Amino acid sequence: MPVAKPYKLIAFVSNSAWSIYNFRLDVITHLVNEGYEVLVLAPDDEYSILLQQNGCRFIPVIFDNRRKDPFQDYSLYRQLKKHYQQQRPDFIFHFVAKPNIYGSLAAAALGIPSVAVITGLGYPFARQNWLYWVLKTLYKRALRKTNEVWFLNNEDAKIFITERIVNIEKVKVLPGEGINTRYFAPDKAHFKKHETFRFIMSTRLLKSKGVSLYADAARILKKKNYDVQFELIGFFETSHPDSIAQEDLNRWQQEGLIQYSGFAKDVRPFLQRADCFVFPSFYSEGIPRCLMEAASMELPIITSNNRGCKDVVLNNTTGFLCRLHDPFDLADKMEKMINLSAEERHRMGEHGRALVHQKFSIDKVIAEYTETLTRDLPD
Predict the structure, then answer these.
(1) How many angstroms separate the CA atoms of 363 and 262, rounded?
(2) 339 burial class (0-12, 13-18, 19+ CB within 10 angstroms)?
(3) pLDDT digit string (tens) for 202-227?
């Protein structure tokens, strides 16, 4: 006989339906299959219907992801509190800054237990401007009200503890948000590479993700007469202050540096035909999902020696680490990858998949959610 669950209605709250679907669908599917009811609150987008098709209830929340005025953002607190009063979720998981702050405060005001998931420190923590100080103050107040605060890497957790934003007793470090290694697996029955060596980068098109560095490294290698393709997939966030300019992307394509293939709902076919994944990010990452996807598909990786990124790569074993903000070092590592034998790259890819399966399997993350939701059950 199954043991009764202390919670029944579980809410997931984030800044987009896309992020819930892309990063947490495996967790949600597991909870639905275990008999929980899952409620998603996020701004409406094309992924809202997909979440509903996978067994969720969806409530659209209206707020501006990029607005910087905390007094205007108080409207998000009021919205979430109203929905929480009406729906009465038993437990809430909040993701990214604004839901973590205003959602945690709203949940606490109604006595609803919650967890704040810090998926990365992001743009304000990198700049440490006035917005950083405002965010730090708001985080400090909101996180006092949560049951736990989850981080995706040790460095982010250390910053929050050192800055006295959160008490260490509340902190848990997850193995990223997990990756389904059964879904992201190389199709060895159709394993065929192009004759021309192909690098690929998959990311949000932000400067701090290293897109410009990728283009600069491509230019360096082109001038050395390497016959190499540099593919880029991802989507623009035109309202983001860190977004790359459309004119820059057009110029890189006109120069023959970058082959931009747009946004891909399914990245696996792109990864399948590539020889190496590149991600020279200097963003305040959690654990980048793009790196877990690439490694799970047995691609060797070149990424920056940056928090979160370096957690997914064993230098010289599953790929190479490059210096931050250095297109010449990035180009050097890319040249080194080109000159490896196919067997050496294949071996790197196999080691990378094994590492991801061992450290970042979605099963480990699902176990953390399950343990949290059943912690107080009697034997």
Answers:
(1) 31
(2) exposed
(3) 999 999 999 999 999 999 999 999 99
